[in-house]
Amino acid sequence: MTFHAVTAGEVADIAAFLRRHLDWAMFPLSNLVNYGFGRDNPYQMRFWLLGEGDGIQAALGLSGQGMLLPVLPDLAASDLTVLFAASDAAAHAYRAIGFRPNGTVAMILMAEPQKVGA
Question: From residue 64, how far is each of 1, 38, 78, 102 by CA, in Å?
Fold first, then answer.
């Protein structure tokens, strides 16, 4: 399983995926529609996708302020191997709620989001 960073040319694909999964995607879709793609504004969104076009299975959204907004409608918890913390605030929040690596789950702290594969 490999997530790839969304480019500006894929924004329509991610918006369509988010619309199909509103029960998971209300907040990342709202941010994308109202604030756009990027990281210049605290509510702008960047995404990493599993799959492409009509075959998108999952998305990891990251707001400009560092909030992780996953949209994982078809993945079992056992399929997830990475919890992103692309900012100090996100890393602090994960530690505050007691997140610790367990089994196949790991937290990776990155200054900038990276392409991550399982």
Answer: 25, 7, 28, 28
